[in-house]
Amino acid sequence: EYDPMKLEAIQKIELPNYGISKNLIQNPGFEDGLHAWGKITGIRITNTDHLNEWLIIDTNVSYEGKRSLRFQVRPNTSKDPQTYDYIGMVSPYSFQFKSGSSYTFSFYAKKDMDDEVALGGVAFGGSSWGKWQGNGYWVLTKEWKRYSMTFMIKEGIGTILLGIPWWFNDNFGSKIKSPKVNFWIDNVQLEE
């Protein structure tokens, strides 16, 4: 029986040829839109007025190339700090990690307002969701800057999640005072 929550089920599909580059991320600069990426919307969204604006491919702002991935964050209009108006993450396709190997995940990012904007990243590997192998937390600046995290994988297949995660439940949304804050991600890398 197929269990979609178990990553070992994916091991039977043919994964892309990651041996052609040191960077395991396909489409790292979003030049092909969201090809080779998936988006995950959060479970605590309370305001869906701007739901289609939270994540777009931006053709006007990039670190390198002609495109980047733009997130848009808005203030939390709920009185409950456990909820958010907009929350979501992106994830590249799954990887066949080498068990016991160390990996570095990095990306360039910047924001457009003075409001505190933080990104979360998590790496997981193994046969089911929740086997987190590493995580990062980065407060962005208004200039392009490279952010990174290094982690060790204990089990094979896995991926990376990057964005505004559901575990930012410490009044994250209330740190946004502007009507909206944009931030961009570009030049994403994952290397052994």
Protein described:
This protein is mainly beta and 192 residues long. The protein has no helices and eleven strands. Strands 1, 4, 5, 7, 8 and 10 form a six-stranded antiparallel sheet that branches. The radius of gyration is 17 Å and the shape is globular.
Provide a compact summary of the structure.
This protein is an all-beta fold and 192 residues long.
The stretches of 5 or more residues where confidence is low (pLDDT under 50) are 1-5, 169-174
Number of strands: 11
Choose one word for the global shape.
globular
Q: Proportion of β residues? A: 35-45%
Estimate the helix proportion, in percent: under 10%
Biggest sheet character: 6 strands, antiparallel
How far apart are the termini? 33 Å
Which sequence of SSEs, written as H and E, runs from N to C? EEEEEEEEEEE
What's the pLDDT, averaged over the residues?
75
Count of helical regions: 0
Q: How large is the radius of gyration?
A: 17 Å
Q: Structural class given helices, strands, pairing?
A: mainly beta
